[in-house]
Inverse folding.
């Protein structure tokens, strides 16, 4: 039997068992760990070229619209305006946003002021010598940007007659700070904070009569008036696969909100790629709210030090008494999400650790039983060479176990992997299930090979691309599905990847019920509820 067929049968069997109720305790450890033998066909997944139609500036008009969620009743509409093509007599510093629940009569109005930030261009090796696909710039173009000889006085210390030979292959080069051709100027950045919104209500918005959109708010914490769907993804990037995952997230997952566990644009200090990324993502992000988390590509894969991230993406840190945008907490319906930072100090003396203790203390499990934590770098992942990032796990896992965290969501390693409930490197029914979802389609391709044999805590792993869907039904039951989205072209309704004859291109490739059993695991109760 073909092994993929076996895998498919296993999935259907699981679903049948579940639907007949035979898996009433689905969290019990299943004996078989599984490595999918699906291997994504060797297709290019390069950055989309700058001339791609989806990445183009709207030349002064509102663009890059994206929604951030701060509370069930508080949403930030972010958008930008690229003024490069406007006459220099124009500086549209203000924008007017109107919004309301009646589309034909938007009764709220806000006037917003623009902000702008600058960044030093860093010419990453990926620009001109990517491992796959075509470069964004070639080395001659980079040399030209670096070269100050045409305008600097020869005696001036910035004088530099840079040639191609001076650009080291496969290494980042940063132009000197007083080379103006290396200064990125962001478009005008606007962030509109809409407050006191009604829960579970569709709002319509209009920006300067140029852009209209809508979104639907989330329920209040503690309210469960139907299943809640949460979209999960990480390590997105801007390739054709990223675009397909984006479209899949919008149309097939159709979530109430989305969590992105770090690594957004892969701009890596070639800053214009933040603009192209938000343009590519706009269909999803202008209508579905995100809860953001930062990864290394927001921080130091290229020396961005969070600047683009900080200016563009709003996080609920003030709402959760955090001193920094880097970690925060959020609750809606039956779910409480804590977002941590893999790249901020996490040792037990750190601000992050002290804040986390307080954040966990504030969780009300009677109101929001599902405690979900997201950050970027996995604590458990069985891809070869990913075991070295264990310091954060050593510092914080005891605390998360003590509070009975149900689910940990991470990215960074470009595969899909699901663990059984795990604690202290061993399966443990009262530990958290950890999902690695670093496979949303960035240019780096899947991270393989896996460690052999598969660790006992690893339930399922596959080295291809896709997104996650979590549906929370009630206080005890949630269902998780991972959908492979490996197709190269998104125009077909029944998508088939060339070379992929497995016929599974868009079936849920892995799924599981998550069941909270507080008799078995009293750590999932509030300390005061435990007897
Ligand atoms: C992206 O997909 C389109 C077809 O939809 C194809 O023409 C193009 O070459 C692909 N580009 C990259 C960079 O993969
Ligand atoms: C929406 O606004 C229009 C135009 O003002 C009005 O005629 C209509 O009654 C409103 N609808 C509701 C449900 O309030
Ligand atoms: C640079 O990277 C390319 C693509 O990965 C590789 O083929 C080439 O050998 C590398 N060059 C050097 C000098 O490392
Ligand atoms: C680099 O790109 C520019 C602009 O596309 C082109 O004119 C030039 O010939 C290219 N140089 C090399 C060495 O490929
Ligand atoms: C810069 O280098 C090029 C190539 O080596 C040379 O032809 C040119 O004269 C140099 N320019 C200056 C201003 O030194
Ligand atoms: C809300 O916006 C989406 C995306 O722009 C659009 O497809 C949809 O028709 C809008 N819904 C309503 C009710 O206007
Ligand atoms: C704090 O962390 C240090 C270093 O890992 C460890 O030696 C110490 O026991 C920890 N203290 C507490 C109170 O957990
Ligand atoms: C965790 O367990 C695996 C076996 O499942 C073992 O190979 C690994 O060394 C252990 N790691 C630590 C940090 O104990
Ligand atoms: C919770 O949801 C699951 C899945 O839909 C269902 O089987 C179960 O009966 C529900 N439990 C309660 C208490 O409603
Ligand atoms: C989908 O796009 C591909 C690549 O652009 C093209 O070859 C194919 O004919 C298209 N299929 C349909 C159904 O339009
Ligand atoms: C919960 O766990 C307890 C103790 O392990 C077990 O007896 C009970 O059957 C479980 N309940 C459910 C609904 O799985
Ligand atoms: Fe990463």
């Amino acid at each position: 039997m073909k092994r993929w067929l076996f895998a498919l049968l296993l999935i259907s069997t699981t679903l049948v068992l579940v639907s007949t109720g035979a898996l009433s305790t689905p969290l019990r450890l299943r004996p078989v760990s599984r490595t999918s033998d699906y291997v994504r066909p060797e297709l290019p997944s390069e950055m989309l070229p700058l001339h791609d139609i989806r990445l183009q500036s709207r030349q002064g008009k509102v663009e890059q619209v994206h929604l951030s969620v701060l509370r069930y009743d508080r949403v930030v509409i972010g958008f930008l305006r690229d003024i490069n093509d406007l006459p220099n007599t124009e500086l549209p510093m203000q924008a007017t946003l109107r919004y309301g629940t009646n589309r034909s009569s938007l009764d709220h109005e806000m006037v917003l002021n623009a902000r702008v930030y600058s960044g030093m261009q860093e010419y990453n090796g990926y620009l001109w010598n990517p491992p796959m696909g075509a470069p964004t710039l070639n080395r001659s173009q980079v040399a030209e940007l670096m070269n100050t000889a045409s305008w600097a006085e020869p005696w001036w210390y910035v004088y530099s007659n840079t040639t191609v030979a001076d650009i080291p292959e496969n290494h980042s080069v940063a132009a000197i700070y007083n080379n103006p051709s290396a200064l990125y100027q962001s478009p005008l950045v606007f962030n509109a904070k809409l407050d006191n919104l009604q829960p579970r209500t569709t709002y319509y918005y209009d920006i300067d009569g140029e852009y209209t959109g809508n979104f639907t708010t989330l329920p209040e914490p503690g309210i469960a008036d139907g299943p809640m769907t949460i979209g999960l993804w990480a390590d997105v990037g801007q390739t054709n696969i990223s675009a397909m995952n984006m479209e899949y997230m919008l149309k097939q997952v159709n979530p109430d909100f989305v969590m992105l566990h770090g690594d957004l644009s892969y701009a890596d200090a070639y800053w214009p790629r933040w603009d192209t990324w938000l343009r590519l993502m706009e269909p999803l992000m202008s209508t579905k709210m995100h809860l953001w988390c930062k990864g290394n590509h927001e921080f130091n894969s290229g020396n961005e030090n969070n600047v683009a991230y900080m200016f563009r993406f709003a996080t609920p840190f003030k709402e959760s008494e955090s001193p920094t945008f880097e970690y925060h907490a959020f609750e809606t319906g039956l779910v409480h999400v804590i977002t941590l930072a893999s790249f901020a100090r996490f040792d037990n003396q750190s601000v992050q650790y002290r804040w986390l203790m307080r954040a966990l203390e504030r969780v009300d499990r009677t109101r929001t039983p599902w405690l979900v934590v997201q950050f970027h770098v996995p604590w458990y992942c069985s891809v070869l060479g990913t075991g070295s990032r264990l310091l954060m796990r050593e510092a914080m896992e005891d605390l998360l176990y003590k509070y009975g965290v149900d689910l940990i969501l991470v990215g960074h390693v470009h595969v899909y992997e699901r663990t059984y409930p795990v604690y202290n490197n061993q399966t443990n029914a009262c530990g958290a299930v950890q999902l690695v979802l670093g496979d949303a389609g960035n240019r780096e391709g899947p991270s393989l090979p896996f460690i052999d044999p598969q660790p006992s805590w690893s339930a399922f792993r596959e080295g291809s691309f896709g997104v996650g869907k979590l549906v929370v039904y009630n206080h005890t039951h949630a269902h998780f599905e991972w959908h492979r989205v490996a197709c190269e072209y998104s125009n077909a309704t029944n998508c088939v990847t060339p070379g992929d004859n497995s016929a599974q291109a868009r079936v849920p490739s892995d799924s599981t019920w998550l069941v909270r059993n507080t008799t078995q695991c009293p750590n999932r109760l509030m300390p005061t509820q435990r007897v």
